[in-house]
Structure formats: C-alpha cells, structure tokens
C-alpha cells in the first residue's frame, strides 16, 4: 500500500508545472519526504493512543487531548515563529526573522542545498515541532490544568525547542559547527522533552492518588500496544525521512530504525524477566519506544550492528531508569524521563562511540578530531541541551503558574477525573 501511495505522489509531482521547471529538485526525494512527513504526523495520534491507554479511565480523554492539541498549536507556532527561530539566518544561537509568518517559504526553490522544496522541508520539520512537546504531556498527565498546559507548550516551543533545533540542525548553529551529530532528534526531540518532563514533574508535584496510596492502573493496555505499533511505523518516516532524500543514507537510517526498535523491545523484556520473572505487554511497548529513542540520533550514522547495540542498551537502561522516580521521589506519570530523557542522552553519546564511515561517509568529517573528540562533542551537546531545557522549562512553568492561577487542576477535579472536571465528557460511556 505504501509503495502505491509513494508512486502516486511521485506521479503527481512529476505532472506539476512548478516542479517540471524546478531542475534543482529530485522528484523521488520530494515524494519520499512528502510521505515521511505524513508518517511523522501519524506519530502524534499514535502517541495519544499510547499515553491514553496508560492513565486511569477518568483521565483518558484529557490525556489524549494533550497530544491532539499539539497538531493545532504546534503547526501555528511553527508557521508564525518557530521555523524562523530554528532555520532562519542564525548567529549560532538563534535564527533571524527570514521566515516569520511563513514568508519566503518557496514551493519552487530549495532550502540551502537540499533537493526538495523549502516549503516541504518546513512541513517535515513542523511535524517534529508538533510531537516534541506532546511527549512532555506524559509526565504531567492526570493533574495539570488544560489552559496552563496550552500556554506552557506554546511558550516551550518558542523558547526551548526552536532554539535547540537551530543549535543542532541549522548550519550556522553552534552545536552543528562543533561537530555534534544528531541525525533525527536524539537531543533536539527526546533529551529536550525528557529533561523538560523532569522539570514539569517536580514543578507540579505528585498526583493526589499517589500521595493517598490509591492504585493507579492503566485503563487499556491494548490501546497502548496499538499506539506503540503505530509509533514504530511512523518512526520510519521520522528517521529515514531525515535523510531528506531516498538514497543510501535513508536506507541506513531505515535499517537502523527497525533493528533499534526490535532490539529495544527484546532488551526491555529481558530486563523485566531478570528483575521480576515476568515479561509484560507494557514492557514490550515501552521497550520498542526506548529502542527507537536511542537509535534516533544515530540512525543515519551507524551500521546495523551499531543499531543493535544501541537498541539493546536503550531497552535495558531505560527499563532500569523508570524505577528511579520511586527512589528520587518525583511523579513522572508515564515515564517520559526514563524513556525519552535517558534514552535520548544514551543514544546521543553512543552515536559518538559507534558512528561509522561505512554507514555514512560524512562521519569521516566528524572523526577529523578523533573518536574521543567526537564523543566529547556529543557529551557537550547532551549537557548543554539538558541544562538549557531543564532551566527554561522550570522558568516557563513558574510564569505560567503565576499567570493562570496555578498549574494544577482543583483537588476535587483531580479526584473525579479531568475528563469530566475540565472537558465535561467521558471516554467510556458503558
């Protein structure tokens, strides 16, 4: 089905007058990135299913809406300000206003030296901006005011995500010039959101049910498994599409994505079997996501063997990391810190360790200062993005709390469930 759809898109592009005269474009590359953009958009409703199944039944709609809202908020913020702050002419830290409100986004000219239209690159990157703050919502599930959440993710996209994306992916960005490698968002997407989730968990405090010793059980693990499976499918566009061409590098990234997810799934289940004696369905879903997170920064830079190592390491380490919240006392409701924060940092560092010219000739340039030089650049990127995201997230939450009269829902609403208290509806009318 996907191959037929890709072919249909390619035919449509070939017949378009705008593209027929645009010799700078490779029509196959354009078709591939267009399909990848759709696949990455699929990840946001998939995430809503993944998260929605993990919360209690009285909070399923409010939790899913947190992800769905980003398809609206993220798209508009990215058009108005986000893209230009990330990919406008940069001073190394922040882009200019070249693309403010979408101006200068051509459908017939490329961005830089790419072989796809600038407008398609804008749309592809938009889907990353949509899903990244949605990841944070898993940490604040079941207790945050809806209005406060909307204001928070809007400010976070502008003040945290967009600058960090520019540091790493804009050719003028300081981490880009440092030589830090991040193929599809290990630091930009997963580390930034995972660290933000930690700050948000601390700022909001624990759920009332948790402090009262009430059981907090998933309402629908079958929904979570479906969401995880759809995330796996969408992640192919996320990683392989980041090559921005249908070439050998995209195939390297495709292979690494598949192997990383599979290894993460098996690594997590092995960890569970050793720790508790029982591998679980939730562990399988969490493990494949952990493997995908870990391999994301490395996808276009490592061999299949490297992806196997990263996926296994992410599956095992993230399985252990989700237990840290109990020891440290913060309430990360859906384990965003343990999976995305830890997995993103691990993947970024292992990218420096395992990046291979056999997978991507550009790695030779990154290794010009030696293997330890590359690993050092990766560590600097992890530390810089981690500190920046944590501090700015905490500041944003304090501001939002002051403006909106507090971050948390009313105690009665939290006890009743946010679906009814904040939205006047219920996910299950049985």
Secondary-structure map:
Elements: H1 2-15, H2 17-20, H3 27-52, H4 60-87, H5 118-136, H6 146-169, H7 174-178, H8 186-204, H9 208-211, H10 221-240, H11 248-276, H12 281-295, H13 304-321, H14 324-328, H15 336-354, H16 363-366, H17 371-404, H18 411-416, H19 418-423
What fold name goes in the CATH topology slot? Ammonium transporter fold
| Strand residues, percent | under 5%
What spatial form do the alpha-carbon principal axes imply?
globular
The portion of residues assigned to helices is: 55-70%
Kindly state the mean pLDDT as a whole number?
93
The biggest beta sheet reads: none
Based on CA atoms alone, the radius of gyration comes out at: 21 Å
> How many structural units, i.e. domains?
1
What are the main properties of this structure?
70% helix; Ammonium transporter fold; mainly alpha; 19 helices; 430 residues; single chain
Describe the structure.
This protein is mostly helical and 430 residues long. It has one domain: Ammonium transporter AmtB like domains (Ammonium transporter fold, Orthogonal Bundle). It has 19 helices and no strands. The longest helix is centred in the last third of the chain and has 34 residues, at 371-404. It is globular and about 60 Å long.
What's a concise summary of this model?
With 430 residues, the chain is mainly α.
């Amino acid at each position: 089905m996907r191959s037929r759809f890709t072919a249909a898109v390619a035919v449509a592009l070939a017949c378009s007058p705008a593209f027929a005269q645009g010799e700078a474009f490779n029509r196959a590359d354009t078709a591939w990135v267009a399909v990848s953009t759709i696949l990455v958009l699929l990840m946001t409703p998939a995430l809503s299913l993944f998260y929605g199944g993990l919360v209690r039944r009285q909070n399923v709609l409010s939790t899913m809406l947190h992800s769905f809202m980003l398809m609206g908020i993220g798209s508009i913020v990215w058009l108005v300000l986000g893209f230009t702050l990330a990919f406008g002419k940069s001073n190394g830290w922040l882009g200019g206003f070249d693309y403010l409100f979408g101006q200068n986004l051509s459908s017939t000219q490329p961005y830089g030296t790419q072989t796809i239209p600038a407008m398609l690159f804008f749309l592809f990157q938009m889907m990353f901006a949509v899903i990244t703050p949605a990841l944070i919502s898993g940490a604040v599930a079941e207790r945050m005011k809806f209005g406060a959440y909307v204001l928070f993710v809007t400010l976070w996209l502008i003040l945290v995500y967009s600058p960090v994306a520019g540091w790493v992916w804009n050719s003028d960005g300081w981490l880009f010039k440092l030589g830090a490698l991040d193929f599809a968002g290990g630091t930009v997407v997963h580390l930034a959101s995972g660290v933000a989730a930690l700050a948000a968990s601390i700022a909001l405090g624990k759920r009332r049910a948790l402090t009262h010793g009430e059981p907090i059980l998933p309402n629908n693990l079958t929904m979570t498994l479906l969401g995880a499976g759809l995330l796996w499918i969408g992640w192919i566009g996320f990683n392989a599409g980041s090559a921005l061409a249908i070439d050998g590098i995209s195939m390297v990234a495709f292979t690494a994505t598949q192997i990383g997810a599979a290894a993460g799934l098996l690594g997590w289940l092995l960890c569970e079997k050793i720790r508790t004696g029982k591998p679980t369905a939730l562990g399988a879903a969490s493990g494949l996501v952990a493997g995908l997170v870990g391999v994301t920064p490395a996808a276009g830079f490592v061999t299949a063997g490297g992806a196997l190592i990263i996926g296994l390491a992410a599956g095992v380490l993230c399985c252990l990391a989700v237990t840290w919240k109990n020891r440290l006392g913060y309430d990360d409701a859906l384990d965003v810190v343990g999976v995305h924060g830890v997995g993103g940092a691990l993947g970024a560092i292992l990218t420096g360790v395992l990046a291979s010219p056999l997978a991507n000739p550009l790695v030779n340039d990154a290794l010009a200062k030696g293997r330890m030089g590359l690993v050092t650049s990766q560590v600097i990127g992890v530390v810089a993005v981690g500190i920046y995201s944590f501090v700015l997230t905490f500041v944003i939450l304090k501001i939002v709390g002051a403006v909106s009269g507090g971050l948390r829902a009313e105690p009665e609403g939290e006890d009743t469930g946010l679906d009814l208290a904040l939205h006047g509806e219920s996910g299950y009318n049985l």
